[in-house]
Amino acid sequence: MKIVSWNVNGLRAIMKKGFEESVKALDADILFIQETKMQEDQLTEEILLKELGYTLTMHSGIRKGYSSVAVYTRIPVDAIVKGSGLDVYDVEGRVLEVRVGEYVIFGIYFPNGGSGEERLAYKMRFYEDLLARFVQEKAAGKKVIITGDFNVAHEEIDLANPESNQKTSGFLPIERAWFTKLLASGFVDIYRQRNPEEVIYTYWDQRFRARDRNMGWRIDYFVLSEGMEDEVEDVRIYNELFGSDHCPLSLTLKG
To answer: How far apart, in whole angstroms, are the C-alpha atoms of residue 138 and residue 148?
Structure first.
């Protein structure tokens, strides 16, 4: 089973930038999308990707052109759950949950905390409430996979300019401490575990042509329940694929 995650920064926009060809190349069984920035009534046949064998499920926020997530599936799944179950977050369309056998796979667009103290507080509540969900599923014996745009670079290796971003949301001590807490709760950042010294990014600020200079951030992850490491055949970051200010990443499980 191959799972891919990609913050597309607008699903309608990326359709004009070779998205279908990229999806073919990625060859995902389950493809999580963040920042669709669209509603279901804006869907077109092109976006559905039926010719590639996919079924699309969307969880859109109330505010048009903002946030929202989706998942393309081309394998049988037991259930797809829209939202976190908490209205305060679900009005923004941030969480999808796919259940396949013993796996619970979360595709999440975590909030950005950069627009003031109130928004940072919202982000931290989101972090804590979702962590409780992850731990609950793990305690119930499920194999938990969390992917998406976490909106935090965990360590200095995960961004190009750690010194100048100490007070920037996405690299604040409180945000980084939550990611450390997530891992301490029985989870693994599988890409970093397998590539402990690799400098690689998943997001580049378009305003400053940061991708041209590879001045980026690694803020998109696959985080797994501890004990699943031997099930992982491959984990990749596709920083050669364009179309968004983020690049896709994948996790392939054996069998």
So the answer is: 18
Paired tokens of 74: 């081309």
Which among 109, 122, 127, 203 is annotated as catalytic? 109
Tell which residue, 237, 234, 195, has the closest CA to residue 214: 237
Which residue out of 149, 158, 189, 220 is catalytically annotated?
Answer: 149
59 marked among binding-site residues: no
Sheet with 103-109, edge to edge strand ranges: 79-82, 95-100, 103-109, 143-149, 220-225, 187-189
Q: Is residue 246 among the annotated active site residues?
A: yes
Catalytic (active site) residue 154:
no
What is the pTM (predicted TM-score) of this model? 0.98
Q: Does 245 show up as a binding residue in the annotation?
A: yes
| Pairing, β 95-100 against β 103-109 | antiparallel
Query: Tens of pLDDT along 228-252?
Result: 999 999 999 999 999 999 999 999 9
Q: Is 214 marked as a binding-site residue?
A: no
35 is in an annotated binding site: yes
Nearest of 77, 79, 80 to residue 69 by alpha carbon: 80
Start-to-end CA distance of the chain, whole Å, equals 7
Residue 230's Cβ-count burial label (10 Å; 0-12, 13-18, 19+) is exposed
Model confidence pLDDT, tens digit, residues 81-137: 999 999 999 999 999 999 999 999 999 999 999 888 999 999 999 999 999 999 999
Question: What one-character-per-residue DSSP string does 181-218 give?
Answer: HHHHTTEEEHHHHH-TT----SB--GGGTTTTTT--B-
Q: Any catalytic annotation for residue 54?
A: no
The verdict on whether residue 205 carries a ligand-binding annotation is: no
85: Cα separation from own chain's centroid: 18
